[in-house]
Amino acid sequence: MPPTDIRIVLVAPSHPGNIGAVARAMKNMALSELVLVRPKQFPHPEASARASLAQDVLDAARTVPTLAAALDGCGFVAATTSREREQYFRVIDVREAAARLVAESRGAPAAVVFGAERSGLTNEELEAAHALVRIPASEAYPSLNLAMAVQLVAYELYRAAADVTATAAPAEAPLATTEEMQRLFAHVEAVLEEIEFRDRTESGTHLMARIRRFLQRAELDQNEVNILRGILTAVQNRRRRAGEAR
């Protein structure tokens, strides 16, 4: 059984040949939804040449201006990385990630995000993910070509989809979408401003980033997001009534 509703997202790919090779890797493993965020050159003849018989994947590929647009409607999101990251990010093995992606995609679209060839994904872009995926490789040379990384992830997705008994069941309630999480983050930030809760670190810029990361790690479902936003709204209403009384 092929993977279900799983989206491959490439952020700022610079080489059109890599985009074509990614399309071919996807079709090998029964994946069809490719989204490109700010590609440097696309469409391009080299992409078509490298795609071989996967031109249909390229033809259906969507180009969007932001990662948020690429993840529109998605529930579970995994992002790939080849570098050590701060402890605030959860990092899981590619095989574990594949099983989770397949399970979650049966309830809502899921996505795997890959960064630019030279720089990968920024910390800000990684904050959109529930978990980071690392592909085991030699310590002497762990960096993979973009198309190779997609091929390996796609292979694990195909295996996980075929092994239905080993794939965890999706959560009872669907995960909050990226749009719902963004609205929650904006609501939290607004309430922190209203109650004058400030970042006490030396730079004064890390508080919301930390909050975003631990809320992403919590993998909130839609009901939980609604509960948190209800609490935040109650705090706002109470402060407004108190202000009127004064």
Query: Taking Cα atoms only, what radius of gyration do you get, to the nearest Å?
Result: 20 Å
CATH superfamily of the largest domain: SPOUT methyltransferase, trefoil knot domain
Q: How helix-rich are the residues, as a percent range?
A: 40-55%
The beta-strand count equals 7
Main β sheet profile: 7 strands, parallel
> H/E order of the elements?
EHEHHEHEEHEHEHHHH
In which order are the strands of the major sheet placed? 3-2-1-6-4-7-5
Q: Between the first and last Cα atoms, what is the distance in angstroms? A: 64 Å
What does the average pLDDT come to? 89
CATH level 1 class label of the largest domain: Alpha Beta
- Given helix and strand content, the structural type is alpha/beta
**CATH fold description of the largest domain:** Alpha/beta knot
Bulk shape: elongated
CATH architecture annotation of the largest domain: 3-Layer(aba) Sandwich
Helical segment count:
10
Low-confidence stretches: none
Whole-number total of structural domains? 2
Strand portion: 5-15%
Characterization of this structure:
This protein is 47% helix and 12% strand. β1, α1 and β2 form a beta-alpha-beta unit. The relative contact order is 0.15. Strands 3-2-1-6-4-7-5 form a seven-stranded parallel sheet. It is α/β, with parallel strands linked by helices and 246 residues long. It has helices at residues 16-28, 45-51, 55-60, 67-70, 94-105, 123-126, 146-162, 178-194, 207-217, 222-245, and strands spanning 6-11, 33-37, 62-64, 77-80, 91-93, 110-114, 131-134. It has two domains: 6-166, SPOUT methyltransferase, trefoil knot domain (Alpha/beta knot), CATH 3.40.1280.10; 178-245, Helicase, Ruva Protein, domain 3 (Orthogonal Bundle), CATH 1.10.8.
